[in-house]
Amino acid sequence: MDRPPFVDPHVHLWDLSQLSYPWLTPPFSDDGPNGSVEAIAHDYGLDDYLADAAGWDVAGIVHVDAGAAPDQALAETDWLQRLADARGMPNGIVAFADLGAPDVDRLLGQQAARPNVRGIRHIVNWHPDPRRTYTARDVTRDAAWARGFALLGKHGLSFDLQCYPAQMPGLVELLAYHPDVPVIVNHAGMGVDTDAAGVAAWREGLAALADLPHVSVKLSGFGFIHRAWRPEQIRPYFLGAIDLFGVERCMVASDMPTDTLFGGFAKHLDAYDAFTIDFSEDERRDLFGRNADRIYRLGLGV
Predict the structure, then answer these.
(1) Is the pLDDT of residue 18 over 90?
(2) Using one digit for the tens of pLDDT, what is the confidence trace for 156-213?
(3) Does the predicted TM-score (pTM) go above 0.90?
């Protein structure tokens, strides 16, 4: 079956001479959620991405906050907007803002004023294991964070939710109260705990989010679960997310170049292609392009 047009809803680009990226700055350690990131701690531009994606008809990309220093979030957006104006990509931008910040309304207004900005990502992964956690505490339990989340709809912004399964049930009430804020779960819910209880928590957490019609999910980042993954290890997560959300609310994504820590573009996309080979042509076109175009309001018409 022919490969459908690809709208990649999760790409990171960076020019280390333009902005500061603390997580891409030495010293590197294998102890964090990604393991050592030294292998990707170099410039990664649009041409690098398109070279990695050779063999796919890339119709568009969405750039997701790449971890620039928080005080440079708007500078990152402006750099990406200039690139989009010159090259036509990225077609959409998911920018960073700290939803718990006292001036979050101003921050969201600045980001929303940029033409290609579609949403916000504020990584909130909290885990009791210090090797897994991204944050010192679960900020999603803070009243200030909830107030910031409530302002997204005012600015016409979606939210990219990168959290762990144990946090999902606690977020359902807040998300349900704001149906005007489309929520996109990153990396298939990041089911990093692989014992029986962890897999059950992943499925239960995603199921609770999937009950909300304005929540969708991106199928990527499986190397966070198994760094040296084999297709048979990630297939249950990939297809399990589709079972919960339905084809119409799932998007295949590359997470380049971060996912190259766990294997190249071809390893990931070839696996996703194989997992869906028995799907209908319409379903594959939805998964690989049309859903991203619709959910991120790109207007590509793929």
Answers:
(1) yes
(2) 999 999 999 999 999 999 999 999 999 999 999 999 999 999 999 999 999 999 999 9
(3) yes
119: region left, alpha or beta (phi > 0 left; psi from -120 to 50 alpha): beta
Integer Cα distance of 174 and 163 in angstroms:
14
What local confidence, expressed as pLDDT, does residue 27 receive?
94
> Within its chain, how far is the Cα of 212 from the centroid?
18
Cβ–Cβ under 8 Å, residues 257 and 216: no
Confidence of residue 1 (pLDDT cuts 50, 70, 90): low
Q: Which residue from 77, 100, 57, 88 is spatially nearest to 13, judged by alpha carbons?
A: 77
Query: DSSP secondary structure string, 65-110?
Result: -----GGGHHHHHHHHHHHHHHHS--SEEEEE--TTSTTHHHHHHH
The CA-atom distances, in angstroms, between 130 and each of 30, 49, 155 are: 12, 32, 35
Distance of CA 280 to the CA centre of its chain: 25
Asked if pLDDT for residue 14 goes beyond 80, the answer is yes
In 10 A of CB 86, how many CB atoms?
9
What are the φ and ψ backbone dihedral angles of 266, each rounded to 5 degrees? -65, -40
**How far, CA to CA in Å, does 229 sit from each of 12, 140, 238?**
21, 30, 13
Residue with tokens 């966070």: 224
